[in-house]
Amino acid sequence: MKWLNIFKKKAPSVTSFSQDNLFTSLNTPSIQENAGWVYMCVKLLATNTATLRYDLVNSKDEIVNNSTILNLLDMPNESFSFYDFAYIVASQLNLSGNSYWLKIKDNSSVTRQLVLLNPHSIVIKTKNSYEIDHYLYYGLQGQRQYLKEDILHFKLIDPADPVRGKSPVSAFAGILQLDDLAEKRHMASFRNQGIPSGILTLPPDHSKIPDISDAQKTLRESFQGVDNYNKVMVVSSNYTPTLTTAKTEFTPLSISPNDLKLLESRFFSKQSIQELFGISGALLGKEESSNRATAEAQKVIFIDNHVKPLMELIVRTLNRHLIHEIDASLKLDLVDPVPENRAELLDEVRAGVDRFITPNEGRIKLGYPPSSLPTMNEISRGFGGI
């Protein structure tokens, strides 16, 4: 399993990597050789995480609209927008557990750009079991050493190794290997057009039969291939020439029980892959029994339990290792991606209007502009002369 070797490597080899290629670092063996359900699940997580919205606020929690930090985040470098940046970080975290970005600084040591590094070309050197000393990067120009402060390192914490991240893919490598083996078995069977339906054994002197080549050609054209799958071949005992009247023996074949179990296991391994990433079948559009209400409910759970934690990880890492280095008085606040429960909000406003909130406060809470029309209470007080 080539793609599983990325989790066994102790030191990377020199790899061909170019910043000019927008998604070079995503061309990992795990995508190239297992670009099925894993890719679909990672893509769904990454596209949702890339919609991350944030506010830059000061120490008084006031929103800041003009800052070089906002310019850096909007366009981390000449090739990436923030959407690309967040998409790649989320993808790499789920595939390798780590995402590394080199800080390009000006003469004042202020970060002006973030350059993507291939996570499979990084070796972390530590001072002890919990503290990073520096990074070694193996690129086109050979080995380069970077200080800890030069690298923006996103990681999914591994309790057994706090300095390095661990991805869901590496944690469940056995399930993914089973799915990969079943997929290869299925593809090999399809490419070979299935197992043969049987074996036709010819007599020892079959080479003397004059029509052997014509017979083989006829068999291939009439009974081999997907279009001719499962056809019944009928041969008359009076058929001539000699091939069909010679002493031949036909042995039927069928798929073995072990092969059937391997192919059936693909269904269960795909379910396990979905559970691994917290993605239901409805989110992938593969559950016919789900309706809009259940699909929306599953999406809210998915965003709350899986997408939002990724967004929070990205924001925390940016605050600690980038924003505070530029300006300690500023920070990013994540805009909650989980949609509000509209029904609960309506009930809350109904219960509060004319008790502890005004009608216009209720309208604003629901997202509507204030109204200049008088309320029913104001009208009734006017008629009462109070």
Task: Tell me what you see in this structure.
This protein has 386 residues and is α+β, with helices and mostly antiparallel strands. The chain has 3 domains: 1-194 and 255-339, no CATH class; 196-224 and 231-253, no CATH class; 343-384, no CATH class. The chain contains 12 helices and 12 strands. It has a 3-stranded antiparallel beta sheet with strand order 3-2-7. Strands 4-5-6 form a 3-stranded antiparallel beta sheet, with no helix packed on it. Helix 2 packs across helix 9. It is flat. The termini are far apart. Mean pLDDT is 74; it is low at 1-34 and 236-245.
Chart the SSEs and their pairings.
Elements: H1 29-33, H2 37-49, E1 54-57, H3 68-74, H4 82-95, E2 98-105, E3 111-117, E4 122-126, E5 132-139, E6 142-147, E7 151-155, E8 157-158, E9 161-165, H5 168-171, H6 173-191, E10 198-201, H7 212-223, E11 249-252, H8 257-277, H9 292-326, E12 331-334, H10 342-352, H11 359-365, H12 376-384
Antiparallel strand pairs: 1-12, 2-3, 2-7, 4-5, 5-6, 8-9, 10-11
Q: Can I get a quick summary?
A:
By secondary structure, the protein is α+β, with helices and mostly antiparallel strands. Helices cover 41% and strands 16% of the residues. The N and C termini lie far apart (84 Å).
